[in-house]
Structure formats: C-alpha cells, structure tokens
Amino acid sequence: MSVITIPKPLRDKLGEEATDAFVEIVKEVDLSARQEAILIAEERLERRLAEEIGKVNERITFEAGKLNERITGLEGKITGIEEKITGLEGNITGIEEKIIGLEGKIIGLEEKITGIQGKITGIEGKITGIQGKITGIEGKITGIEGKITGIEGKINTLELRLTVKLGAVVAVGITVVSVLVKLL
Q: What CA–CA distance (Å, rounded) separates 146 from 157?
C-alpha cells in the first residue's frame, strides 16, 4: 500500500485526528477500488477461459465426428472385402469339388487320361488366378490396415495438440493471475 501524505496547510486546517481519519478513508477507498478491479479481472479471465475451452471442445467434437465418418467408411469397405473373400472361398470350394470329381473320373477312365489332364491344367490355371486375386485382396486389406494405423496416429496427434493447447490456455490464465497478484 502506498504512503499517503497530507500537505501541511491541510493538516493544520483539519487537525491531527481529522487528518488521520481522512487518510484512513482514502486508504479504504483505494483498497476497495483495488479489490473491485481484481474481481472484474477475475471474471473476465474466467469468461475468456470458458469461451476458449468451449471452442476447443467444439473443435474436438467436429474432428471426432469427421474421424468417425472416415472409420465408418473404412469399416464398410472392409465388410465389402470380407464378403468378396467369402465369395472367393465359395468359388474355391466349388473348384475343389470339381477337381475331386475329375480325379475320380481319371481313376475310372484311364483311356481318357490325356483329355482329363488338359481339363485339370485349365482348372489349375483358374486356381492360380483365384489365388492371385486372393493375394491382391490380402494386399488391399494390408493397405487398409495401414490407413487405419495412420488414422489412429492422427487421432493421437490431435489429442496431443489438444493437450498442448489446453496447457497453454491454463499457463496464460496462471500468468494473468500472477501478474494481477503482483500488481496488488
């Protein structure tokens, strides 16, 4: 608190008791004004922090919604790929059944071995083609898994950025309060 000095002519005019009482009134008015200024500053700081936190929460909600949409899309694609794989598995089962039937005919009909071997070669080519398609599908699945990993990395980065921003907002609030305390 600052020292209040009363000029000698005023002190002489008021007298010692009145001067001391006047000094006390001025000190109380000064203290009251400072306390009101601190309250106003605190209210402004709280309001600003609430606004900034609200904005951060809105951004998080928005980004999470976008990520959820992307994940839902990827899940749909994965489901489609799984359905294709199931269909291919059914095709392979059908082809395997045909091979078993052809093998039975080969055993029973040795005179037709040459013709049947041609058919087997054709069927084996189809199997190789299907296996190639399966390998391609597996590659796509691996690619999708990589994208999912990338999305998870982006989520982690967003969470880290949010933590840093919230830390900065809290640090600014602490700095403002400490400056106000020093001013008092």
A: 16
Quick one: which of 24, 20, 38 has its CA closest to 176?
38
Contact in structure between 106 and 113 (CB atoms under 8 Å): yes
Distance CA(38)–CA(50), nearest Å, equals 18
Instruction: Provide the 8-state DSSP code for 6.
Output: -
The tokens for 55 are 């904005």
Compute the CA torsion angle 69, 72, 76, 78 (nearest 10 deg): 120
Q: pLDDT for 20-61, tens place per residue?
A: 888 888 888 888 888 999 999 999 999 999 999 999 999 989
pLDDT per residue as tens digits for the range 96-116: 888 888 777 767 766 666 766
